[in-house]
Design brief:
The structure is a homodimer.
Chain A (H helix, E strand, L loop, with lengths): L1 E7 L6 H15 L1 E4 L2 E5 L2 H12 L8 E7 L6 E6 L10
Chain lengths: ~90, ~90
């Protein structure tokens, strides 16, 4: 399963710590392709673990994570405008 | 065609102006679902116009836009963790 994850952490007093932890968790499972954007291929069980870990950190009323799932990366074309983050080249 | 667009504009002196313009352009074509994340359904011709307009504003060496295309929104499942932006409900 191809996963794309984007997050927006409110930058208040606690926000920096939450953001660091969310970044670290995402990096365990996915590739960072833009500031708060990650992508990669995960099994269902891995995705469930990722979501569980993230839910322990974000503040439900302030922060937002969106996870896009597609059956295969072949179903999603990706195009860069401007600066490209080279780490992604191994996905496409 | 289902489109998901994410951008990261470097916040230097000129960045605020670039970011405002990128946001305004994206809003003409797509729905804002998170700080710098937009989605929607576009025809190929509309996507070409959107890309053309964006290229006039971003700084190729600093800023980054990634456009994900999928033949149909049915090929992409979307899940929110934390705060949800209601504007998206008309897409799914």
């Amino acid at each position: 399963m191809y996963i794309l994850l984007v997050y927006d952490i409110i930058s208040d007093e606690e926000g920096a710590r939450v953001s660091r932890n969310v970044f670290k968790i995402c990096k365990k499972y996915l590739t960072n392709i833009q500031k708060s954007v990650f992508e990669g291929n995960l099994k269902k069980s891995e995705l469930i673990k990722l979501e569980y870990e993230l839910k322990n950190f974000i503040r439900k009323d302030k922060d937002s994570i969106i996870i896009f799932e597609s059956r295969s990366e072949n179903w999603v074309d990706k195009k860069f405008i401007g600066k490209k983050d080279d780490k992604t080249s191994n996905i496409f």
